[in-house]
Amino acid sequence: MRRRGAGASASGPARFVALRAARRLDRVSEAAIDIACIRKTYKGRVTALHEVSFRVEPGEIFGLLGPNGAGKSTLVKILLTVVRPTEARGSLLGRPIGEKGALARVGYLPEQHRLAPYLTARQAVEFSGALSGVRRGERRRRTDALLDLVGLGAWKDRRVGMFSKGMRQRAGLAAALVNDPQILFLDEPTDGVDPVGRKEIRDLLVRMRSEGRTVFLNSHLLSEAEQVCDRVAILLQGRVVKQGALAELQREGAGQELVVRWPSEPRELPGCAGPPRVHADDPTLHVHEIASLDPSDAQPAIDAARAADAVIVSLVSRRERLEDLFIKAVSDPVTGRPLPPGASR
After folding, report:
1. Residue 151 vs residues 46, 156, 159, 170: alpha-carbon distances, Å
2. Is the pLDDT of residue 313 over 80?
3. DSSP single-letter state for residue 212
4. What is d(CA 215, CA 58) in angstroms, rounded to the nearest whole number?
């Protein structure tokens, strides 16, 4: 059982983290989100989601990625009972989707959220806590700690209308955390935020994970997701076309690049995938691709190049970027072009 009063003698962010420690250590091993099937068809037989299924583990940052119109926000709103599904089978924090007991342990920061501009940051976060049913004394203590945590301690009594976009996002995160959620749903949390603000938000998400929270990140900003996500699912036209641990997905297209300066015409090398290509930055160099991360697999190519008096410039490992994975997932496998609306792979 969580003790709400634990750590009350501490102050600021340290007190907030202390309040979380005992419960995080006692976290159950069941999935944070376990979706067997979610479907959504609107009037006119417009299908937004086709039998979506995925699993989110406790204490991880999970990225739901996809182009605009893929159905990401619809899916999140179904999980939060904002949108009624055509069919929904699965669980949220071990409870059936839509059960109030589970929703009480969820935080949500919607895309383009709006806190009342005439309220101070303190008032806005406390108001969110009141809507979530947090007791007055508790929400006041949490509000101060959370505003310190998100870097707005010096702005607690300033009106939200005076804030920059990054500051409003941080205030929104504090409001989403005021009910002490086990799962935090974030819809495009860094969209439109400057580079400094994006880094601050990323750092905060990593901190949430270190406290044992589950973060569900809904985004189309792949570079941001790549820096923080443990696992991802790519949604295209209402279907999950790829999902898994980010590190494992990136290993699928991993390999090594051997850069060589040839004394005359370049040659194909043993163990390399196809003929060499001209280096993008230096036409006097050629790149030979090795479809493996094992350094020993590059030795035959290196030996052959040296035997031909070529100069070995570099050998570097490469992992497929999330952007490359995404483009492959949302493109026609034959033409390489983006799939048109309504098309299937």
Report:
1. 43, 10, 15, 8
2. yes
3. T
4. 9
